[in-house]
Amino acid sequence: MRHEEENKKLKYILYARRSIGANKNEEDNGVPSIESQKTEVRAIAKNEGLTVVQEFNETVSASEPDKRPEFTKMMEYIKSGKANAILCFKVDRLARNSIDAGTITHYLQKSVIKNIRSIDRDWYPDDHALLWAVEFGTSTQYTRDLKKHIKRGQNQSIARGFRPGNAPLGYKNSKYRDKGKNEEILIDTERFLLVRKVFEHMLTGQYNVHQILKFANDELRLTTRKGNKMCKTNMYALLINPFYYGWFRYPQKTGELTHGKHTPMITKQEFDKIQYFLGRAGQTRPHDHNFAYTGLMKCGECGARITCEQKTKRQKNGNTHSYIYYHCTGRVNPNCTQKSIKEEVLEKQIEHFLSSIEISPEFHTWAIEELKTQHEAEKNDRNKILYTQQRDYDQCIKKLDSLTEMRINKEIDGEEFAARKTVLEEEKHILKSLLDGVDKRVDDWLKSVAQTLTFAEKAHAEFNSGDLYKRKQILTALGHNHILKDNILIIETEKPLLLIPEVATQYKLSNEQLEPVKCIGTYKQNVEILPKSTLLWTLADSNR
To answer: What is the mean predicted confidence (pLDDT) over 227-242?
Structure first.
């Protein structure tokens, strides 16, 4: 009775906490929602005539100290003398770590807190310290056991190719523990293609992260899962995340690289290329300072990147002349002997290469029509390849099923089962990749040829008439690792464009026999001569 009367004179703080938000049933592991906690505690205050001067509530774990802003405010409120008692659902709502538990114990023993009232009992300054230690010790031990349980579950998820935690942008998590099924990472149909467009723009090598961010926000209207605009930190995190090519680390920075079972958005080669553009592939991405060709060439002698500088010469008569020079940075070998080259000399070499791959619009039109015809003729052969690979894949699946049955029937032990399963799983993965690869080549090869021919037709003219930005686009399209040695530029580009000069030469030779293209009838005559350019089919093969 003495305590009951004294409690009515105290100034209570109502504190409610939950580690996670309430689900549909407002229950998780027996812990009511914050509103349910407050309702029950308020009923106690009303029935016992207790005075509540302030309420604090938060949805955050208490397993670590200094992670709960509302708890910190509550303790400051008590230290200031504005309150001297606490109302809570259970004492484990107050602390689940030894430091916070120690703070509350100290305040209680020093009578700064005169009463802690929960739904099942009271605590006072003169209570036995051992009982209080056991109470908070139980809460702390629960947290330690829970961490072990969570860690074990995370390790099991990682082992089956599932990345714990929220899926990155463009993906989403399946429903948690839906009918006993394992979690999995699904494609977010709302954002997947948008994120893929971000990667595609970055892969051109023509944009920096700031420009990519602007493109994502202004043109794609890509937002975070919370509906906010993308920021620079979000964009960097997206571009360097191996999750997008099918692997992941957990924890994000320190974990081992693990193969995931989710659908990749890009290939490993594309990811590596982006890391190069970001300066994360062992070399710093050069700053172009409005110079057209920096970041696209390396020294043929020492392998360092080619940089650029502008020099101004002032004559005695007052005239000034500016010159742009490209030269080796000397970072790999300070004694590199390569000399600088003027920009106009470099550009003449680029023009010469572009003129060597230049084709006429007539040849472009004819080539596409002929390749379409060839594509139709090759469909049967491709279907045979697909049939063979699909058959091998199906047989591999049957072998895995048979292996599982053998293990169930105890025909093989666990060690042999694991070894044989690993081999078959790897075989299945390879066959699936081959199937996907053929499908993609069947869909994309003609489009790729068309893009190559369009580039070959227009690049020379656009380079001559284009501004600095357009010229950089064209050299970037040729590649981003060209070689400069002894003032000679070696264009390092892909096979289709390297074949164009040979195809164009055959075309020019054949063209001497052709009638001027004036009408459809003349075109038909030309077609009979042009198929002799057998390199055209090699050009198609190199695009598949």
So the answer is: 91
